[in-house]
Amino acid sequence: MIQRIQSVFLLLLALAMLSMLALPLWHKIDGLTNQELTLTAFGFTPKGMQLPASTGPVWLIGLLAGASAAVAIFEIFQFRNRGKQLLLGTVNLLLITATIGAGFYFSSQGEQMLNVKLAGQYMAGFYLPTLALMLNLLANRFIRRDEQLVRSMDRLR
Known about the structure:
alpha+beta, four-stranded antiparallel β-sheet, 4 strands
């Protein structure tokens, strides 16, 4: 189960998405007014300022990242059914893409809340879904390769 390379990739994917929940995604500082705004997976954290009433469901980023990690862990234990693993890999691809999109959307909302002339900085947590996306693609490639190997062995029998 874990000795297969795709299982290692899926485990690293789950760890990347879970660590995204703990790390900040985006940060912006206004030096003139000493206001700071940080985007995490569960919301905006203001310092020295008041948040607008409608910031939107920022917790959606955390929900998507957690769902992606759960699907990856479940996918590891489906090693006997490679077709199901490929289907779960496709679902995970959609979840990770939605996480990246939600991160972009809410960071652009944060840009509008503070001095528009200053640019915010993307932090380490923002890049982890991109790493998870590459790991997911690698895992799917090796799962597909295993499926082709099994089919070629069945033809020899």
